[in-house]
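Please, structure for the following, as C-alpha cells.
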Amino acid sequence: MASSSSTVARTRQANSALHPDDAMALRAAALSAWAKRNARIIIGLSALAVLVVGGLVVWAYLKGQREAQAAEQLMGLRQNPAVATAAGSRELEGFIQQYDGTTEADEARLMLAQLRLDAGNPRAAVTELTRLAGSGSSLAPQAGMMLGSAHAQAGDRPAAIRAYEQAAEKSGLRYQRFEALGQAALQHEVGGNYAGAVEIYRRLLADAEPNSEQRTIVEMRMTEALARVGAR
C-alpha cells in the first residue's frame, strides 16, 4: 500500500514539473507584465541613454573640429613673419585665449614665451611658462626647460634650478631628464655651489647607461666640480 502511494506521489510530481519551454514562456510573460507596469520608467531611461550617447557624439565632433581649426590657424601663425612683431604677439595671445585647453594653445604659449625671451623680457615669459610647466600637458617638460632659461636670464638662479628639476621630474624621456638636470647643475656651478652640482651629477650617473657618451661627459663635469669643492 505504501509502495503504491509513493508511486502515485512520484507520478504527480513528474506531471507537475514544468517543461523548460513552459518555464521560459512564464518568465517571458512575467517580464512583459513588468515592462507594461514600468513603461514610463523604461521610456525615460531609454531617452536619457539616447541623450547621453548623442551628447558624447556631438561633443567629440565639436572637439575634433575645434582642434582641426586650431592646428590650421597655428600653422598660419608659424609661417607668418609678422608673428615676431608686437602685433604678432597680440595675435598669439588671442589665439591662446580662443583655443585654451588644446595642445595648439600650449604650443602658442611656447612661441610667445620665446618671442619675449628674444626681446629681452624674461619676466613676461615666466608668466606664460609657469602655468604650462606645472600642468599635465605633454609640453610641460619643454616649458619647464624654457622656464629655467627665463629665470636664469632674469637673474633668479634658485628659481631656474627649481624649474629645471621640475622639468626633469615631469619628463618621461631619459635625454630630457639629462638635459634638465645638467642645466640645473650648471646653474649651481655658476652660483659657486659646486657641492650642489656634484650631487646632481651623482644622480645623473646613477641613471646613465654604462660606457655611454652621456656618462663620460657627466663624469668629466663631476671631476671638475669635485676639484673645485676640494680647492675651497
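Residues 39-79 form the longest helix (41 residues). The radius of gyration is 34 Å.
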